[in-house]
Amino acid sequence: MSKINVKKVVLAYSGGLDTSIILKWLQDEYDCEVVTFTADIGQGEEVEPARAKAKAAGVKEIYIDDLREEYARDFVFPMFRANAIYEGEYLLGTSIARPLISKRQIEIANETSADAVSHGATGKGNDQVRFELGYYGLKPDVQVIAPWREWDLNSREKLMAYAKTHDIPVEQKRGKKSPYSMDANLLHISYEGGVLEDPWEGPEDEMWRWTVSPENAPDMATVIELNFEKGDIVAIDGQAMSPAQVMAHLNKVAGANGIGRDDIVENRYVGMKSRGCYETPAGTVMLKAHRAIESITLDREVAHLKDELMPRYATLIYNGYWWAPERKMLQEMIDASQVTVNGRVRLRLYKGNVIVEGRESATDSLFDVNIATFEDDEGAYNQQDAEGFIKLNALRMRIAARKNT
């Protein structure tokens, strides 16, 4: 592959093994200026050390941005209004972070007059697709450098050797073996590689970082109350919180109760199956609570239509189409459905379980106890009407049954 002519590139830079090597590789292979961009989206680790590493590598323009609120408010919360979940299990923690990173990279490229953008996603994964669909959706003519598709450093051992040759510091080094491939943000931590590449092998107990095992969770349940406005959580136990504060709080309290662990084999967009483990404490609670408040505030057909469209919406996010017109169209419909999703939900968190104990909406509940009651409804519902309803719905089956007799 012939190299493009690049004078300046914006690199999505974490300061970890892969992106530290990519920084040096870009400088050497492309003989270009590198601008580093490090996003704090709630990964739970200090991001400032990335500044020192980038500076030591000769980088002159260094961006370190706190994007936690934007991430929660403009990406995670809209996604949870849709109850999005991929293949019945995955809460899309990595997927939903990529469009924000892509957006900010393009903004920095415009600010610094950079020719290109670069990322550290491999040529086997979904993230290369997510990043680049975001780039092209926001800046159609941008140049993209994907080192994993160009270089021959196609194993962790080769990366470690490169780092040693070029005096690139590597944290968490365990002899010749690198740690799990991990990605963390406010919504989750993902773990891939190592023993997890065998889908029969269970994860090591020490791998988990945010959650205790359900066996070691407290013997007494934690009860919490979540307030919703237009489908978003706005307060916990009566205390108003911003979206990022909501997620940080739920990660802590749910993780302490053993909630949010998942071990999944998923179908990647590029075609292969991949096994990964995930910790999503806040997301697990948010999904359960949101469905609970929707159960009393959404019309039946609206709720069912949302459920029919949700797998398509989730797949769009998983595959990287956040900035695509069809996702935006679906989002407008979803957001319109949330106008009446107001009220509160009470949950019991206990040893890995999220149990709905109560839900109410003072203004928008469609639950009418006078109609739903098993006691005398005083004429609110005429049970004799059900006879004609049933016969009309059975008409086609009765016609077919006569043909077969």
Task: Characterize the structure shown.
The protein has 405 residues and is of the alpha/beta class. It folds into three domains: 8-74 and 92-180, Rossmann fold (3-Layer(aba) Sandwich), CATH 3.40.50.620; 184-360, Argininosuccinate synthetase, chain A, domain 2, CATH 3.90.1260.10; 377-403, no CATH class. The chain is 39% helix and 19% strand. The chain contains twelve helices and 14 strands. The strands form three sheets. It has a five-stranded parallel sheet with strand order 3-2-1-4-5, sandwiched between helices. It has a five-stranded antiparallel sheet with strand order 10-9-8-13-14. β4, α5 (127-138) and β5 form a beta-alpha-beta unit. Residues 173-178 have low confidence and may be disordered.
